Structure formats: structure tokens, C-alpha cells
């Protein structure tokens, strides 16, 4: 075991912040806060590791390695630190960590990035250890100052106390001395029974600035002399610029330049309004020879045909072909899912400043480890001269997690084309966002299920056709035998004992770029599997709840627990219809979080109106129950929008039909159901909550609609599916 | 040159008359609490008060705001806005936060007009404000809580 003192680190480099609780050799980093340009650590600050800074004014600032776009990592990770430090919640602050993969890697990814509902799960022990180390050093400082044994010192609510001599000090008073103490490498952690903050609903650290308009997002960054840039992208995917005339755009007052960049034609102006007007005036001829010119309908047809051809087996058990052959009844259904845009309310944006060979970026960078080398490479600067300020972002839902770093590449190309020092803000409009691709993959599921004479499910096959998210990029290394698990996750590793079973995949190709969308493969597998299961149970004359419970594997205890809990919450009595209301249930695990939901639905002129949703969730230790409930509420609203309204449609020729929120409809307050959430009390390590609330709502509503109307909607969204 | 009062401050801006008020507030006056979400009055992120009424600043040309009295999230300071913001904080309403300036402005306007709104009143007043994070349940509760506070 090696131990380092802060002094040694200081002599090794100019850094003020040291990392010792990481699985890497201790390294100094050159002042996170200095890079952030705010609250730079000053003389007297105590920074026991790369994550914590204690200031003489008693504030404890936690450097958060995960981007905050609403899922709560600022609060959650700070809670872990505060818990082990025995800090008072009112002294806690949170700040974005800079881009530094060695210090701030996602321990599940091996690079700095946020996604897959991993922020809490990968940070749980790391941030607790960081807090415990800080506490130990504060205690050691007090022991030295007071000449008492460290073992007699207690810490509570930010106060360090020695009872016998009646002495006490606040963290800030001890900060300077603590900075000179030995950093413990493996400090003891609390037993869960000792938790004071974990498990409570501390006030979210970003709530107040987001209620007053003070929170600073990327679009709110203004630099001296900054120009605003908008880009005309090809109107179809895989298209290129054939010809363009910059003159009409240049004639617009305020437009200062027009440059062709790899992603399109960039219009530079002194104001946003001028940039937009200039872009409108542009005259561009496009080359569509390599573009996707098929319509969505043609693509869906091709995908459907692919499910009948050769596919790759993702998971199988038993002899499903024989089982289906011998079944008393075979049910076959095809489910069709459209492309979906994430539509975060803050569209994609970025600010870059070039000064003397240094590139500084302000962006809702979800993968700083990929954005940084992209900037360096495009601009021809050393990565050490790239500074990334990870900003609050107005939602992502997967959209900002870009394996190809296309937004960083675009803003870098804008700076490069300008060919001088200066600063530029890139704005995507809502139309750019909806037309811009990186959609949830369009997907077809062809499902077959067999039931024997006794009503048992004896066979189940699911053949999926969709594009791969992981292929052709840095994520491809995670694919095995040509299989991309994000294409079918959730249609494999199901909790049910289906005996004879096969899930297989046909990989589709298109120039339309696809991306993870809140819960990724589960967005469609949750619907397809849970609606199809409901159909089989109904055909077998079984209750949707009891039928599921009977099918659960012996080792599916967590699935069983959320299913039983949600049934109890809703007072499930086997009646799928009561009066004008239908009730549907769905169970789906994603990202190691188990969620069951029951939806109460009525028929509002041929479309479902969702009145209530009961939701039971097991995400392990509930670090902040308020944040967990908020994520279930939000995940349900997000999933409901997609289920009812959302589709991105390619018209014949490849142009996108939807333009803005008038034709890409969002759920509104009058359509939001009353959501009741219960969190199971378990001692598993915490898992994520950003995504797992989304998958079950679609099938819960779909099953309620089936109960109420007899119609199984197999084509989403419902606005299309109820007509077919 | 257009003259208007923004948050009780008289300002003059020299921009083309068709420039949306939203971009005047942001680019010229650096009042960045008012957000861009759609540009076509569909999402409500750009909601401000203009002459006492809620207004989508993204589709309001500055020439229409000449001589107007504009209040943005930064300038709200009435018992209603204070009650709304306190309730927003108490209920931990925001997630990503992008829409919340517009939500707070709309909720303040609602309570100024209807001190004790019903759920239907809330639906009518707030349906123009999209929250992509779907914080709607908390928005509804926070408005009721703020109404209770104001009632005393």
C-alpha cells in the first residue's frame, strides 16, 4: 500500500488537487476549477482528492464527473461524499469536472462519459471513498491541532468535535491543516445502518438556479466578439453539397461569412437572427446519389422481409422449432416501431473559442473522452490544448452521447473554416434537430408463440430487424460475433421461463444515423415482449399478473417483488376492465433496475387517455428517493409521448416529414397521468434510474388498451397504430 | 431603433424590426433566462410577460414590442412569482431545467389572474409549456402549493 502526502504531489507538479482514491497511481491534475474558470481553489483550500474541495468558508465542492441534464448526478454524487464526510447538506456544492479521462473516467466505460444509467452505479463506492478519505484527513488535522487521539474525535453535520476536551471546529477552519495530512488509501466506509443522508430526499443542488433562470447552459455562453453560426445540412441522409451560392446569404445584414464544412454550409453572423435569416437565403444544390432515398414505408417493408431471411441468433434455449410445431395454438404477430428523435428541449449547441493555439469548448459534452480528441484532431492542436467545459444541458435522453462526436466535429470545423482566433456559437434549430438523424432505430419484431392444450407457453421466437448503433464506430469493439446487443436487449435475458426460446437479429443498413434513445433497445423490446406475452396469456385464459408470476424463473426474485408490489398498489383483482377504464400491466428490467407498472386507460375518441400509472421500482439502495420518483415520473412521460405520438417519417426521396413540435407532438400537462411510485427497500448496490422508467409504460398502456377495446396495437405510434 | 422597458429598465436596441424579441433579450440584453426551444410558439420555453400578458418571445418581432413593458424570468418579483419559485424549489420541480423559466412565468401569470386555480385552470394555462422531462405532476402540485401560500 502506497501513501502519498499532498506535499509530495505539490512538489511533483503545480496541481492543487490530487487523486488517490482512484484505481490509478496518484496523479496531480492542473486545477479543475481553474479550467472551469470559476471558484478557483485558493490558498487555504483543502482538496484531498480529485473530487473534493473544502474552502475556508466551509463549503464543500464536489467535482462531478457526470453531466447533469436532469437525472440528478450533481445531487446524488454529492450525497455520497457528504454522507461519508459527515458534512451538513447546506455546505455542499457541485461543479462539473473537467475533461480528464484519467481522473474522471466512468468506471464501467473506461473513459469519461455518461450513459446507460450508470452514473450512480459506477460512482457509488468511488465517491464514498473520496468522502471518507476527506473525513479521515480532517480528523487527523484536528487530532494534531488539539493533541488528542484521532479515535476520540467525532464528526457530525460538518463539525469536528473532541468531547472530552470540549473542542470543536468546522471543516473550513481545519482545511489548511488537513491539506498537509497523509491521504488514506482505503478509508473505512459506513455500514448502511449508519447512513444519515443516503436514503433521504435532500434538496437537489441544481433546483434553485433552474427555478430562477440563473443556471448557465451552453446557449447562455456569450464571449467577446462571438459570432453565431447555423449550418444548412443536407435535406436527406448521405447527401452532399453539389453547388451553392453564398451571395444571397452574404447580402443579409449581419452575415459575415459563409463556408462549406464537411457537414454542410455554415453561415456566420453577428447575431442569431441574422444567422438564421442568412441561412434561409442560401441557395444550395444537393447531390443525393449516395443518400437514403427510400421512404419509411419502403424501409419498414424491407425490414419486415428481412425477418423472414437468415438472421443471427442472439440467445436460444431448448428446441423452439419442434415446440412450435407441436403446439396446440400458435400466435404470430409483427410489431413495427418508427424512427424517433430525442428532441431534448435545448437543441444541440456549442461554443468554441480559439486563442493562441488553445481551443476552449463549452458544450453539453456527454462523452468528453471522445469529444476532446475529435476537437484536437480537427483543429490540429495537441489534446493538452483542448479545454472542455461540460455545461448543464437541457436534456439529452441519449442525443448528446455521440460515439462519432459529430457535434464537436462540427463546431471544430466551424472554427477551422474561419481560420483565425475568435469565438463562435453553433446553434441547431428544432428543425435541424428533428431532421438531423441519430434516431432511435426503426425496428420490426416478428414474434411467434406456441401454447399447449393445458394453456402453457411452450415456445417463443422473436426475430428483430434494425440498424446497429454500435457498428462502424468506436463502440464496435464491444460487439461480439457480429452481434450488437443494443439492437435486441430486453428480448434476451428475459425473466420468464419460456423453455423453448430463440431471439435472433437481422442487421439492416441505411445512411440514416441511429443512436441510443432513453433505454435504447428496451424502447421497443419492452413493448414487443410484454404485449406479446399478454396476448399469449389471454389466449391461454390466464390472468396477466398471476400468469406472469407463474412464468417467472426461480431466480427472478427482484422481478417478482416489483410485480407483486405494483399489483398491490393498484389493488389488482383480475378485472382488466372496470366501467370505462381498462387496466394493463408490464414488467421490464433494464440497466439492472426492475420496474413494473400498471396503467389505467380510457378511450378518448379512439385514442387512449392515460389517467393513472402505478409504478414499483427496485434500483437497489435508494440514494435519493425523490430523484428516483422524479425519474420514474419523467421516464413514464417520455415513454408515453413516444407511444402515443412520435414518429420520424422519411418521405419518398428521403426528406423528413416532421419539422417541429406541431407535427412531432410532445405530451403536455393535460395529458400527464397521475403517477404513483413506490421504491422497494433493498440492499443491492444502487443501479440507475434515468432510463428504466421508460420501457414498461408503452406495454402497460398497450395492454390496458387491449383489455378495453380488444385491439392490439402492433404499429407505433398509437396515432398510426389504432387506424391499422 | 426600438425602445422598450425590460424588467423596469428602459432599453433601446438597434436591430431589424423583424428580429424576434427572444433574440433581442438574449443576444442584445444578455438576459439568458429566457430560452429557445422551437422558434414557432409551440413549446413555451421563451415565455415572457409583455404588457401584463404571457407572450411567446420567439415569434414576437421587436417592432411589436416597441414601447412595451416586458418582464423576463430575471425580473419577476411579485408575491405570486415568489410563491411560485418557492414552491418550485420545495417540490424539486426541475430536471434538465431548460423549460422551467417559461413554466415559472406562465405559472406566475396564472396565479396573478386566478389565485386559486383548479386542475382545469392549470391545464388551460400551462398546456402551452412543454416539459420534455415531463415534470408536469410536480408543476401541478407546485402551483397548488403556491396558491395555498398566497391564500395565507
TrEMBL record, chain B:
CDD domains with a match to the protein in the record: fer2
Organism from which the protein derives: Pontivivens nitratireducens
InterPro entries linked to this entry: 2Fe-2S-bd (IPR002888), 2Fe-2S-bd_dom_sf (IPR036884), 2Fe-2S_ferredoxin-like_sf (IPR036010), 2Fe-2S_ferredoxin-type (IPR001041), 2Fe2S_fd_BS (IPR006058), Beta-grasp_dom_sf (IPR012675), Diverse_Oxidoreductases (IPR051452)
Gene3D superfamilies, alphabetized: 3.10.20.30, [2Fe-2S]-binding domain
Location of the 2Fe-2S ferredoxin-type domain: 1-76
Protein name: (2Fe-2S)-binding protein
MF-aspect GO terms: 2 iron, 2 sulfur cluster binding; metal ion binding; oxidoreductase activity
Top-rank taxon: Bacteria
SUPFAM superfamilies named among the record's database cross-references: 2Fe-2S ferredoxin-like, CO dehydrogenase ISP C-domain like
PROSITE patterns: 2FE2S_FER_1 (PS00197), 2FE2S_FER_2 (PS51085)
UniProt keyword list: 2Fe-2S, Iron, Iron-sulfur, Metal-binding, Oxidoreductase
Amino acid at each position: 500500500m502506497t501513501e502519498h502526502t499532498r506535499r509530495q504531489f505539490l512538489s511533483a507538479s503545480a496541481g492543487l488537487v490530487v487523486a488517490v482514491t482512484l484505481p490509478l497511481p496518484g496523479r496531480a491534475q492542473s486545477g479543475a476549477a481553474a479550467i472551469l474558470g470559476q471558484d478557483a481553489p485558493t490558498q487555504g483550500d483543502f482538496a484531498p482528492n480529485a473530487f473534493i474541495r473544502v474552502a475556508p468558508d466551509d463549503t464543500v465542492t464536489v467535482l462531478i464527473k457526470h453531466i447533469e441534464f436532469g437525472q440528478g448526478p450533481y445531487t446524488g454524487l454529492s450525497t455520497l461524499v457528504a454522507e461519508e464526510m459527515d458534512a451538513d447538506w447546506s455546505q455542499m456544492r457541485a461543479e462539473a469536472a473537467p475533461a480528464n479521462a484519467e481522473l474522471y473516467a466512468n468506471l464501467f466505460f473506461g473513459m469519461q462519459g455518461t450513459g446507460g444509467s450508470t452514473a450512480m452505479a459506477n460512482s457509488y463506492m468511488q465517491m464514498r471513498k473520496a468522502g471518507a478519505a476527506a473525513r479521515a484527513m480532517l480528523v487527523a488535522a484536528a487530532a494534531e491541532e488539539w493533541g488528542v487521539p484521532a479515535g476520540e474525535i467525532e464528526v457530525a453535520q460538518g463539525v469536528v468535535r473532541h468531547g472530552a476536551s470540549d473542542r470543536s471546529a468546522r471543516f473550513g477552519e481545519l482545511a489548511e491543516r488537513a491539506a498537509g495530512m497523509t491521504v488514506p488509501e482505503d478509508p473505512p466506509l459506513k455500514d448502511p445502518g449508519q447512513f444519515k443522508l443516503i436514503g433521504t430526499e435532500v434538496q437537489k443542488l441544481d433546483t434553485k438556479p433552474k427555478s430562477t433562470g440563473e443556471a448557465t447552459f451552453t446557449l447562455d455562453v456569450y464571449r467577446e466578439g462571438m459570432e453565431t453560426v447555423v449550418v444548412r445540412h443536407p435535406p436527406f441522409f448521405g447527401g452532399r453539397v453539389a453547388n451553392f451560392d453564398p451571395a444571397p446569404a452574404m447580402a443579409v445584414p449581419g452575415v459575415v461569412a459563409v463556408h462549406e464544412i464537411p457537414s454542410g454550409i455554415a453561415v456566420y453572423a453577428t447575431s442569431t437572427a441574422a444567422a438564421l435569416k442568412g441561412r434561409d437565403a442560401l441557395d444550395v444544390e444537393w447531390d443525393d446519389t449516395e443518400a437514403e432515398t427510400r421512404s419509411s414505408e419502403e424501409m419498414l417493408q424491407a425490414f419486415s422481409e428481412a425477418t423472414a431471411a437468415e438472421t443471427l441468433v442472439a440467445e436460444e434455449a431448448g428446441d423452439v422449432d419442434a415446440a412450435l410445431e407441436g403446439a396446440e395454438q400458435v400466435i404470430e404477430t409483427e410489431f413495427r416501431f418508427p424512427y424517433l428523435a430525442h428532441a431534448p428541449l435545448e437543441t444541440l449547441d456549442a461554443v468554441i473559442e480559439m486563442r493562441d493555439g488553445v481551443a476552449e469548448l463549452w458544450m453539453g459534452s456527454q462523452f468528453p473522452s471522445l469529444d476532446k480528441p475529435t476537437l484536437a484532431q480537427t483543429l490540429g492542436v495537441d489534446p493538452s490544448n483542448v479545454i472542455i467545459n461540460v455545461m448543464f444541458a437541457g436534456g439529452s435522453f441519449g442525443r448528446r452521447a455521440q460515439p462519432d462526436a459529430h457535434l464537436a466535429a462540427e463546431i471544430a470545423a466551424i472554427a477551422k473554416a474561419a481560420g483565425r482566433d475568435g469565438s463562435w456559437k453553433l446553434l441547431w434549430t428544432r428543425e435541424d434537430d428533428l431532421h438531423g438523424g441519430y434516431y432511435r432505430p426503426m425496428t420490426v419484431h416478428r414474434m411467434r408463440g406456441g401454447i399447449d392444450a393445458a394453456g402453457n407457453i411452450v415456445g417463443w421466437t422473436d426475430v428483430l430487424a434494425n440498424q446497429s448503433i454500435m457498428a462502424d464506430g468506436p463502440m464496435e469493439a464491444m460487439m461480439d460475433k457480429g452481434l450488437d446487443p443494443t439492437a435486441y436487449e430486453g428480448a434476451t435475458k428475459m425473466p420468464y421461463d419460456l423453455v423453448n426460446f430463440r431471439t435472433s437479429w437481422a442487421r439492416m443498413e441505411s445512411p440514416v444515423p441511429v443512436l441510443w434513445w432513453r433505454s435504447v433497445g428496451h424502447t421497443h423490446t419492452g413493448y414487443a415482449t410484454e404485449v406479446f406475452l399478454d396476448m399469449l396469456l389471454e389466449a391461454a385464459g390466464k390472468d396477466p399478473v398471476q400468469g406472469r408470476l407463474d412464468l417467472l424463473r426461480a431466480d427472478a426474485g427482484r422481478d417478482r417483488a416489483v410485480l407483486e408490489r405494483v399489483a398491490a398498489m393498484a389493488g389488482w383483482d383480475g378485472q382488466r376492465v372496470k366501467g370505462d377504464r381498462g387496466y394493463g400491466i408490464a414488467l421490464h428490467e433494464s440497466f439492472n433496475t426492475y420496474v413494473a407498472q400498471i396503467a389505467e386507460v380510457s378511450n378518448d375518441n379512439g385514442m387512449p387517455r392515460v389517467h393513472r400509472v402505478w409504478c414499483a421500482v427496485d434500483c437497489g439502495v435508494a440514494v435519493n428517493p425523490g430523484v428516483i420518483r422524479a425519474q420514474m415520473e419523467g421516464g413514464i412521460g417520455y415513454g408515453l409521448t413516444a407511444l402515443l405520438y412520435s414518429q420520424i417519417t422519411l418521405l419518398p426521396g428521403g426528406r423528413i416529414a416532421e419539422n417541429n413540435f406541431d407535427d412531432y407532438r410532445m405530451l403536455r400537462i393535460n395529458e400527464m397521468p397521475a403517477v404513483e411510485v413506490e421504491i422497494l427497500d433493498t440492499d443491492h448496490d444502487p443501479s440507475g434510474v434515468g432510463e428504466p422508467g421508460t420501457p414498461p409504460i408503452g406495454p402497460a398502456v398497450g395492454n390496458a388498451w387491449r383489455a378495453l377495446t380488444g385491439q392490439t396495437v402492433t404499429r407505433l405510434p398509437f396515432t398510426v397504430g389504432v387506424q391499422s | 431603433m426600438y425602445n422598450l422597458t425590460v424588467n423596469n429598465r428602459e432599453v433601446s436596441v438597434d436591430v431589424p424590426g423583424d428580429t424576434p424579441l427572444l433574440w433581442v433579450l438574449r443576444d442584445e440584453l444578455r438576459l439568458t433566462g429566457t430560452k429557445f426551444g422551437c422558434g414557432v410558439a409551440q413549446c413555451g420555453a421563451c415565455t415572457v410577460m409583455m404588457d401584463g400578458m404571457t407572450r411567446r418571445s420567439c415569434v414576437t418581432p421587436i417592432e411589436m414590442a416597441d414601447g412595451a413593458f416586458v418582464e423576463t424570468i430575471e425580473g419577476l418579483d411579485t408575491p405570486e412569482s415568489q410563491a411560485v419559485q418557492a414552491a418550485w424549489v420545495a417540490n424539486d420541480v426541475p430536471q434538465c431545467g431548460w423549460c422551467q423559466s417559461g413554466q415559472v412565468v406562465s405559472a406566475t401569470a396564472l396565479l396573478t389572474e386566478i389565485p386559486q386555480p383548479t386542475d382545469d385552470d392549470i391545464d388551460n394555462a400551462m398546456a402551452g409549456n412543454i416539459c420534455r422531462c415531463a415534470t408536469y405532476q410536480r408543476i401541478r402540485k407546485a402551483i397548488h402549493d403556491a396558491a395555498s401560500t398566497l391564500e395565507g
